[in-house]
TrEMBL record, chain A:
A GO CC term assigned to this protein in UniProt: microtubule organizing center
One Pfam family this sequence matches: WD40
Organism: Sander lucioperca
Protein's name in the database: WD repeat containing, antisense to TP73
Automatic annotation (TrEMBL), chain B:
Compartments where located: Cell junction, Adherens junction; Cytoplasm, Cytoskeleton, Microtubule organizing center, Centrosome, Centriolar satellite
Native source organism of the sequence: Sander lucioperca (Pike-perch)
Record keywords: Cell adhesion, Cell junction, Coiled coil, Cytoplasm, Cytoskeleton
Record-stated family: Belongs to the ADIP family.
Protein name: SSX family member 2 interacting protein
Major place of residence: other
InterPro entries cross-referenced by the UniProt entry: Adhesion_Centrosome_assoc, Afadin/alpha-actinin-bd
Keyword Cytoplasm part of the UniProt annotation: yes
Coiled coil: 141-207
Biological processes annotated in GO: cell adhesion; intraciliary transport involved in cilium assembly
UniProt GO cellular component terms: adherens junction; centriolar satellite; ciliary basal body
Amino acid sequence: MNFSEVFKQSNQLCKVSPDGKYLATCVQYRLVVRDVSTLQILQLYTCLDQISHMDWSSDSLFILCAMYKRGLVQVWSLEQPDWHCKIDEGSIGLVSSRWSPDGRHILNTTEFHLRVTVWSLCTKAVSYIKYPKACQKGIDFSRDGCYMALAERRDCKDYVSVFVCDDWHLLRHFETETQDLAGLEWSPNGCVLAVWDSCLEYKVLLYSLDGRLLSTYSAYEWSLGVKSVTWSPSSQFLAIGSYDEKVRILNHITWKKIAQFEHIATINNTKAVVYKEVEKRPAVGSDDLSLHNITIGTTLFNTQSKYEICPPPVQVPVVKPDPDRANPKIGVSTLAFSSDSRYLATKNDNMASVVWVWDMQKMSLLAVLEQTSAVRCFQWDPRRPRLALCTGNTKLYLWSPAGCVSVQVPTEDQQTWNSCFMTLA
Amino acid sequence: MPESSLVKDICSSSIECRPSPLRQSSQSSLPLHRNYMLSTFCTEKNVQECLSHISQEVSSLGLPPVWMESGGSSEMNVVAVLNCIYDLIQLHRRGLRTLENMEVEQLKSSSNLDYLQLTSTQLKEQLELSKRENTGLLERERQLQLKVKSLQNCLKNEKEEVQKLQNIIASRASQYNHEMKRKEREFNKLRERLNQLLVDKKEKKQAIDVLNNIGRADGKRSLWKTEKTEAKHEGEMYKTLLSDYDIRQRELLLENAELKKVLQQMKKDMVSILSSKKPTLKDDQHQDDDIQADLEEEVFDSSKESVELYCVHAREKLTNSIRLQWRRLKSHVERLDNQGSLHVIGRSKNTDAVSRETHEEEMDRLKLEIQQCKDFIQTQHQLLQQQLSSPYDEEKASLLSDCYMLQEKERFRDEWKTLEEQRKIFERERRNFTEAAIRLSHERKAFEDDRATWLKHQFLNLSPFADSNKPQMSKSKSAFLISSAPEKLIKRPSDTTSPTPRCVPLTSPSTAELYPTLCLVPENRYSV
């Protein structure tokens, strides 16, 4: 694995273009576009204020830079560096900004979620969408870019509006049976919309594209409910992670639970492989502590780490969350399916340094990766079943069904990594 | 009756001293003076004896003697007698009194005894009763303790549940509070913003500033929003949904078809297994018919088109028949199991089923055989691998190219050599023989000529002159010894003397002499 030299980036804004040719990074108010293979700087743009959010358009021709404080969005073109576009939301403020799937419209959510403004870069036309809901995930585009689902709240009731992204025509508008809608997500085949309630009530609703309620799922009452939801890429499974430290898998034919994965503190499963990261600090003799060595020696503090396989039973470190605080650090917060839907990686918040990998064919635990510090993020390789994760130190950890490896990234400081994982072919 | 026995004793003791017919007043249980009877103890005849007897008795009782044997007077001391009687009466009275006392004592003690017995039985009953009560109480106590334990468990569970619910309530409350605070903060921000907006005169309007319009991503012109487009969108949406359902339905159909195939296969296998077990079963006559029916059904089924199986009834029939077969197979296997176990336990002489032990032995033997074969194959394989994987060396290869035939080759080479030699020898011999034959023929010819000339000469010289000097004949050597003898005979029929040695210079040399001359060396033909 080759590593490039270190680039400065602020705010963890570093994105590869969807076609994989360019890499855009933000430094304060500057946008730097490089070629991915040579890492040569191709373009350099300057924005009016510190960039809060940056995103590529779907056709990799445009980049939007949003400055939330100033309420400005600037759009840059790669083909024509002279082309400029500035969207000023005025006094109404800006909370979030995103591209539409066709790469020609920008959706700005104003402050206090008053409305969503749809700006068209083709016609300079503006559309408004009223009463968007301020929740965990209120807007979702279907994978083929045809439809957009928006969560709304009027008169203390939740609604979902489905728009056609072509001309922003409102296709369907229906009320949902949620108490307080927390998020919605299209299935990858674009035919089913999963809608879930806030953590005070465990409820997951499944709506068809034309607004019919297909099914409701509720595992239990009263205790804190759904924490995270994700679809498998084949649209066959819906994985629901909840505050009771369990993941429940629903199937797309009957919308009933077919499996339940528990994250238990003592692993007795003999079929699962438990990888434990073991750090080795290079021993420092007292003679060596000369000034010379210390100045050279970030190598002193760079620990080597490797994975050891632990035989069962294995005790996983558990951190009990503070019971009095809201949104406790307990429950399955992160779920990710591999691209072939064969594996599911999960993270349980009170076992923050452990990543669990489940086999979807056998519906059982396949591997457990125990790191020395809390796992910040993980992502699957879009092509093959390979999981990359990072824990905030200078190492990158890779898991595949064949084994586990930790790679030292040559950086000087311990930077926090973002999930800016690029898997180059 | 104790008194009578007392009386009896007294009387019996007197009987000891003297056997005297005594009519006992044993019937009386009352004091003697009541039943006064004439005693026939003393008569006029035996006064003396009676007297002495009585005095003995009295003295034995400790009283002064009644009669003294002094003088022959038969007169008794009346005073002494009266005293004695009086003493006796006193004694008797005393005895009676003690008897009374004793009777009273005895009555008392018997009543005491009765009383005690009564009380003891009463106490025993009470004890029984109290024991039963005790066990009953213990039982109750045990039950109550159990109840207490279960209630304690219930209490614990309830407490836990209450705790859990309290936790839930607490978490929900904290969540609500959090949300409330968040909303309040947002509300405050809104208020401030509103104030600011009201105060602020300059309202920054929303605006977009684009250098030039860019084309649409797909290059098409954008359309006005009309009813047609709306309808088109609806149509497209339904198309998407329908195609998705279509795909799913197709997949499910395929899956169904496969599963049905599997079920059919299973059913066939089960039927075949069960029907093959027919001859071993003695008591399953009815099964034959069923299996026949199944087979017929099977044949019938497979003749139908698969489309038929999509019908609900056909599906049910299939599943039912599979269930039936499976049940039969299960019962059959269970029966076999039982039979096997029975053999192990009972050692019955049922020769049809194989006993488990022999079966196991057979299995072990087969396993061993398999293992041996495997080992053999393994070693073979290893050797083959070694053979194939040995490093390729030119010299060695050439050396080893025909290594297996080396010995034979050497042998053949040697044999070839010898054969060659022999051939050469044969050639030489043949050549020599042909030469010899040629020479022989020449010599024969010469000889014939000589003979002819000699004969001619002889004929011409046939004369009575015996010892005429005959011209020397040319000594022709003849290889043939045999010819010498007939020559002699032919030559001299009339001449008995043998001048032949002189006349006939034909002395055939011996074969041995001839060989060296002919350069024929007798050799050992076979040197091998």
